[in-house]
């Protein structure tokens, strides 16, 4: 991955992020195997409901719906905050690294609501939704928060080893992230940097699609 931040601080952040992400994945795996898994906080679209998936996958819901959980006028989807995985002792983590400062922030209400949803998805659906997010990014001018949150949530439940098609999607994702980083106008202070770093950490480091990021982790990184 080109244009990596300064080595020392970024290395520390990357190792911590991967560790926390691995712990989240373990907790979600345990939760998904329980007899009564956490119910999704909003209705899952039917397989052929293209409009519903567009709203759900690509953030085409009004901001007030995400904040208040009020149903969408176009189909009843709601992103209501719920106890979700946090209520089961699972805390989503998304330490976000900006090149000039290290900041710790949660993944946001959307990502926290997505985690109970992805628990109900089989791996074919997870792979397909990841591919949709990557395809959407190919023509996007910037990385939107909802896209980074979806990739984070899907990565949290994506099983290893990944299928060849999923691996191809992750490689395409890393190429797009590198391209977006190269085009940043504000350099290390660009607000896109934290989002791109999280996506790169998931796809490039945790799922092994970037040799440079893997090298920064070292051989003792725990990435089940």
- State which percent range the strand residues make up: under 5%
Radius of gyration over alpha carbons?
A: 17 Å
CATH class wording: Mainly Alpha
Q: Do you know the CATH architecture?
A: Up-down Bundle
Q: Helical residue percent?
A: 40-55%
Spans with pLDDT under 50 lasting ≥5 residues?
61-92, 94-107
Largest sheet: 2 strands, antiparallel
Family: Belongs to the gemin-2 family.
Protein name: Survival motor neuron interacting protein 1-domain-containing protein
Organism: Dunaliella salina
SSE blueprint:
Elements: H1 7-32, H2 50-57, H3 63-68, E1 94-98, E2 101-105, H4 108-118, H5 123-138, H6 145-157, H7 164-182, H8 192-206, H9 211-217
Antiparallel strand pairs: 1-2
Family: Belongs to the gemin-2 family.
Protein name: Survival motor neuron interacting protein 1-domain-containing protein
Describe the structure.
- The protein is 54% helix and 4% strand.
- The relative contact order is 0.17.
- The chain is mainly α and 224 residues long.
- α4 (108-118) runs parallel beside α6 (145-157).
- Strands 1-2 form a two-stranded antiparallel sheet.
- The chain has a single domain (7-41, 81-217), classed as Up-down Bundle (Methane Monooxygenase Hydroxylase, Chain G, domain 1), CATH 1.20.58.
- The chain has nine helices and two strands.
Quick synopsis:
This protein has 224 residues and is mainly alpha-helical.
């Amino acid at each position: 991955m080109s244009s990596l931040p300064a080595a020392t601080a970024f290395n520390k952040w990357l190792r911590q992020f991967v560790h926390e992400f691995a712990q989240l994945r373990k907790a979600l795996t345990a939760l998904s195997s329980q007899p009564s898994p956490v119910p999704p906080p909003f209705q899952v679209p039917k397989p052929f409901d293209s409009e519903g998936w567009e709203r759900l996958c690509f953030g085409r819901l009004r901001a007030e719906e995400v904040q208040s959980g009020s149903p969408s006028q176009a189909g009843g989807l709601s992103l209501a905050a719920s106890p979700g995985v946090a209520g089961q002792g699972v805390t989503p983590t998304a330490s976000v690294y900006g090149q000039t400062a290290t900041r710790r922030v949660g993944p946001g209400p959307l990502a926290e609501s997505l985690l109970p949803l992805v628990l109900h998805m089989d791996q074919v659906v997870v792979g397909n939704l990841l591919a949709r997010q990557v395809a959407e990014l190919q023509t996007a001018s910037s990385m939107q928060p909802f896209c980074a949150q979806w990739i984070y949530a899907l990565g949290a439940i994506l099983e290893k080893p990944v299928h060849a098609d999923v691996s191809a999607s992750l490689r395409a994702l890393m190429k797009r992230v590198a391209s977006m980083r190269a085009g940043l106008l504000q350099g290390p202070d660009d607000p896109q940097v934290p989002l791109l770093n999280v996506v790169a950490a998931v796809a490039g480091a945790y799922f092994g699609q970037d040799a440079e990021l893997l090298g920064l982790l070292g051989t003792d990184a725990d990435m089940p």
